[in-house]
Write a structure and sequence with these properties.
It is globular and about 25 Å long. The protein is α+β, with helices and mostly antiparallel strands and 71 residues long. The longest helix has 6 residues, at 52-57. Strand 1 and strand 2 (19-22) form a beta hairpin. It has 2 helices and 5 strands; from the N terminus they run ββαββαβ.
């Protein structure tokens, strides 16, 4: 059936867009993200805490996408 699945990189964002925590052995940890990092963009689109999940869910299945962050 047409069920939508929420995607996850294994991180939780705070309301200010900073990473609150990163799950062990997750794609986010493997990419080098850490608590306190500021997420800037995903696939060339600006990311905020309110649009993060929608941006992530909009990516094609198994697609590689550039994630930019600032430490």
């Amino acid at each position: 059936h047409g069920r939508a699945h929420k995607r996850s990189l294994g991180l939780k964002l705070q309301s200010d867009g900073r990473v609150a925590h990163v799950l062990r052995h997750s794609p986010a940890q493997q990419a080098g993200l850490a608590g306190g990092d500021q997420i800037i963009s995903l696939a060339g689109l600006k990311v905020t805490s309110s649009n993060w999940q929608a941006r992530l869910d909009a990516l094609p299945a198994d697609a590689a996408a550039e994630l930019l962050w600032f430490r």
